[in-house]
Amino acid sequence: MRPLSLACRWRPSCCSYLTLPIILFLILMKMMYFKLPIIKIKVWIFFLLFCNRNEDLKQMLESNKDSAKLDAMKRIVGMIAKGKNASELFPAVVKNVASKNIEIKKLVYVYLVRYAEEQQDLALLSISTFQRALKDPNQLIRASALRVLSSIRVPIIVPIMMLAIKEASADLSPYVRKNAAHAIQKLYSLDPEQKEMLIEVIEKLLKDKSTLVAGSVVMAFEEVCPDRIDLIHKNYRKLCNLLVDVEEWGQVVIIHMLTRYARTQFVSPWKEGDELEDNEKNFYESDDDQKEKTDKRKKPYTMDPDHRLLIRNTKPLLQSRNAAVVMAVAQLYWHISPKSEAGIISKSLVRLLRSNREVQYIVLQNIATMSIQRKGMFEPYLKSFYVRSTDPTMIKTLKLEILTNLANEANISTLLREFQTYVKSQDKQFAAATIQTIGRCATNIVEVTDTCLNGLVCLLSNRDEIVVAESVVVIKKLLQMQPVQHGEIIKHMAKLLDSITVPVARASILWLIGENCERVPKIAPDVLRKMAKSFTSEDDLVKLQILNLGAKLYLTNSKQTKLLTQYILNLGKYDQNYDIRDRTRFIRQLIVPNEKSGALSKYAKKIFLAQKPAPLLESPFKDRDHFQLGTLSHTLNIKATGYLELSNWPEVAPDPSVRNVEVIELAKEWTPAGKAKQENSAKKFYSESEEEEDSSDSSSDSESESGSESGEEGDSNEDSSEDSSSEQDSESGRESGLENKRTAKRNSKAKGKSGSEDEEKENEKSKTSDSSNAESSSIEDSSSDSESESESESESESRKVTQEKEKKTKQGRTPLTKDVSLLDLDDFNPVSTPVALPIPALSPSLMADLEGLNLSTSSSVISVSTPVFVPTKTHVLLHRMSGKGLAAHYFFPRQPCIFGDKMVSIQITLNNTTDQKIENIHIGEKKLPIGLKMHVFNPIDSLEPEGSITVSMGIDFCDSTQTASFQLCTKDDCFSVNIQPPVGELLLPVAMSEKDFKKEQGMLTGMNETSAVIIAAPQNFTPSVIFQKVVNIANVGAVPSGQDNIHRCEELNFEAL
C-alpha cells in the first residue's frame, strides 16, 4: 500500500518536465521492491503521463504574464507542427483570443484554425471576438479571424460568414482578399444554396489586379462555378499577363483553368495542314472571279491573338523550379498549341526526371502517353530514359514503356542491346517486364521479329525460372502471328515442360501444342500422356489447357489419344474446382458423340481448331489520352471525383470581342515632343491619308499577335515583352511608357511597308507566310523563311518608292532593313554573298542605349570562299549484305548545295554488287527530327549488274548533328538508313583579313569561346601539319596571321545564311 500513498502525496503541479522522469523512475523502483504485478506498474505510469502531461502549459496560459503565455503558445504550435494532439488545450487557448498582445493573438488564431472544426461548440462561444477581429488594424489578425470563422462548420453561422466574406473581399489588403477567396470554398461546401451570392463575390475578386489574389480566386471559381466561362472573358488577358508573377500553386490552378477556357473559345490549331487549300487559279479565270471564289472558300487557319497570348505567356514558366508548374504548362501546350510548337515541352519534362521518384513517376506517365502519338518529341532524349540501377521498379517499368513507344528501325538495335542488360537484372519483376517489351518491339517492327524471337528462345535456357516463364508467354504470342515457320521452336518448348513449374508458362506451352498439334503429330500425344500423369497435382489454369489439348488431339488423332482423353475427362469430372468440372462435361458432350449429343457435335472440330486472331500487344497508356494530362484521373486511368473534362474544339470560334475591355480615357496621354514630331514626319511620308494611319494604329496590336502566329520559337525577350505590354495597354491605356513602345512599334511597321500598297497585297503576304509556316516542319525554319521573304519583298518595294520619290528619300529616309533592338541580336543574319550592309536608322534614345555596340558586320564585305581541303573519306550508308546486293556510300564534297543555301551537299554512290538488274532506286519514307529538311535525288530507273552511279542530295540539318533517317528503296525492298553529319561539315569557309577577324572576334560573347588542350608529338606542331589537321575535320578558311604561333580560321554556319 505504500506506493499508493506515495503517489497520492506527489503533486505533479510542483514539478516540471525535467523532474518527471526522475520521479517516475523512483516510483517504478519502489513498486518493483514490493513485487507488485507488472500490469499495475504500467497502469500507474500511463495514469501519471496522460493526466499530467499538459498541466504546466495550462498554468502558463492562465498566467498574468504575456511572456509565459507566449512561451506556452510557441510550445503548443510546435506540438501541432510535429503532429501531436493538442486538442485538450482548446478551452485554455481560446480564453486568450482577446489578448492585447499581437504575437499571442497570432499564435492563438493559428491554433484555432487547426482545431475550430473539432471543437465547434467552444469556438462558437468566442464568435463575437472573431467578428471584432475582422476590423482589427492588423491585416494578419483580420485574415486569421476570417480563417477561423470559416473553419467553424456550423450551418447557423452561415449568414455571419457570408457577411464577413463580402467585407473581406473589399479589404484594402490583398492578403485579406486572398483569404476571402479561400473562405468562399469552405462556405460553398457547408451551404451550396449560397452559390449565387458567392458567384457575385468571385466576379468581384476576378477583377482584382493583385497577383496574390489571382490564384486563390481562380481556385474558388473552379470549385463553385467552373461552367461560368462568361466570368473569365473580361479577365482573360489580365490573367495571362499576371501569370508569370503569380505564386507557383496559383499558376498551376490558373493554367488548368485557361486550358479548359481555350478549348471552348478558340478553333483547333491542329487543322493547319488540312485547311490549307490550293490557291492556283484556272487559266481563263479573271482576277475578279478568282477573288470571289476565294472569298467563298474557307479561309486558311489564323491563330486568334488571344490564343497566341496564352501560349506565349506560359512559355517562360517551362523554366520554373516547381515541377507542378512545368507539368501544367506541358499539358497546356499538348492540348491547345499547334503540333509544331509542342516540341519545346520535351526538354523541360526530361529535366524533371532529375527530381525525386514521386515526381518522376507522374512525369514519366505523362511522357508515356505523349510518346504514343508523337514519337518525334522525345526521340532526341532517348538516352534520358535508360534505366538506372538505383531506380525503383515502378520507374523502371515506365521507362521501359517509353523506350518501347520510341523504338523504330533506326534505334532498335541500340535498344535491344540495352534490353539484353535489363533481362539480367536482379529485379525479377523488371526482368519480366523487359521480356514483354522485347515482344512488343518484335510485333511493332517487322524487321527485328526474327531477331527478337531467336533471343527469346535463347532465354529459355536461363537458370531463372521467372525469366523462362515470361519468355514462354511472349513466344507464344509471337508464334500466333506466324506459326507455320517455327515448328522447331514449338518442339523445343515442349521439352521444357519437365523443368518449368510456373503455371502460366506451362499453360502457354500446352496451348501452343494444342493449336499446332497437326504440325507436331509425334510430340503432342506424348505431351498429353505426361500431363495425364500429373493432372491431379497441376494448377487449375494448367488443368483447363490439358482438357483443351485432349479435346484437340481426340479430334485430330483419335487412334492414339482416344483412351487417354477419356481418362483425363474422367479425372476432370471429379475435380474439386467447379470450373474444371463444367469444362469437362461440356467437352465430353461436344467431342464424344452419343444419343444425347446435339447438333453442335458435328462442328466440334471447327469450334476447337478455328483460326485464332493474333494477339494485339498494345501500350497500357493507349486509352489514357482522353484524360487531361497531369490530372489524377490520368494517373489512375479512371475518372476521379471533381474531374472536369476538356471539351472538343468548336467548329466556329465564338465572338472574340467578349474579351475586349472598355477603357475610359481620363486625359490625353502625354508623349515626348521629339517623338511626336518624328511620328508626324513618318505620317507625312509613309501614309497617303490619315485614315490609313488610324486603321493601322487601331490594328497594330492584333497585327503583332497574328504576325507572331507563325510560331517563331526563337523570339527574343524584348519581342515577348512588347507583345505583353501591348496587351496591357489595350486594357488600361494609362501608362505612357507602354504607349511609347506601341508608337515605336507602329513606326517600325510603317518603315517595313510602302505607303502606296493596298490591303489586298498585305493579305496575300500574310497568306503566303501562313502557308509556308504550315508546310515547314520547324518553327524556327518557318519563321526565318517568312522573314526572308518579307525582307526581299519589302526591299524590292523600297526600290520602287525610291525611284519614284527621290526627293523625299533625300530628306532622311534610310534603306529598308530589319528592326534592330537591344535583345534582337540573334535575329541578325550575315549574308552569304559580298553585300555592303546599310546602317540601320535608330531613334535618339536607342542610339544612346546602343552606344559602343556595333550591330553591323565587322567588315564591309563578307564572302564565302572555296574549300581549302576536300577529304575523300566515305561513309557507309548501306552495306551490300543488308541491302541485298545494293551498296551505298556517301561523302561531303564541301561545295555549295544547289538545292538551298542552308542545305549541306551530300554525294551518294550506289553500287549494284549482284548479277541482276536493280530497278527503281529512290528515297522512300523520311523520318526526320523536327526542323530538318531533305531534298532527295531523282529516282533511278535501273542499275545494271556491277554498275555504279553517283547522285547528289541536300539536307538542312538546322545547324545541329541530329541524325537524318530515311528509307532507301528499290522496286522490291526498302532499307532504313541514316546520315549524321560531323560538326565540321556544317560550316562554310569565309575569306577575310586579320584585322576584320580580330574585330569579329571582339564582338563574340563568352558563350562562344571554347578552349581545349591537345597533346601531340613535336613533329606534329609545325604550322602546315596543324593547318592540315584542322581543315581535314572542319570546312574552315585560313586567315592571314602576323604571328607564327597563332593560327586563325574563319567559318560561317549554314543557319547564318
TrEMBL record:
Biased composition (Basic and acidic residues): 279-295, 676-687, 731-742, 796-809
Chain intervals for the UniProt region annotation (Disordered): 278-302, 672-815
Basic residues composition-biased segments: 743-752
Cross-referenced Pfam families: Adaptin_N, AP3B1_C, AP3B1_C_2, SEEEED
Membrane topology, record value: Peripheral membrane protein
Bias-annotated ranges (Low complexity): 769-781
InterPro entries on file: AP3_beta, AP3B1/2_C, AP3B1_Ser, AP3B_C, AP_beta, ARM-like, ARM-type_fold, Clathrin/coatomer_adapt-like_N
Biased composition (Acidic residues): 688-730, 782-795
Domain AP-3 complex subunit beta C-terminal: residue ranges: 815-962
Annotated Gene Ontology cellular component terms: AP-3 adaptor complex; clathrin-coated vesicle membrane; Golgi apparatus
Signal peptide range: none
UniProt xrefs under Gene3D superfamilies: Leucine-rich Repeat Variant (1.25.10.10)
Keyword Phosphoprotein listed: yes
Any single GO BP term: intracellular protein transport
Keywords from the named record: Cytoplasmic vesicle, Golgi apparatus, Membrane, Phosphoprotein, Protein transport, Transmembrane, Transmembrane helix, Transport
Name of the protein described by the UniProt record: AP-3 complex subunit beta
Organism: Papio anubis (Olive baboon)
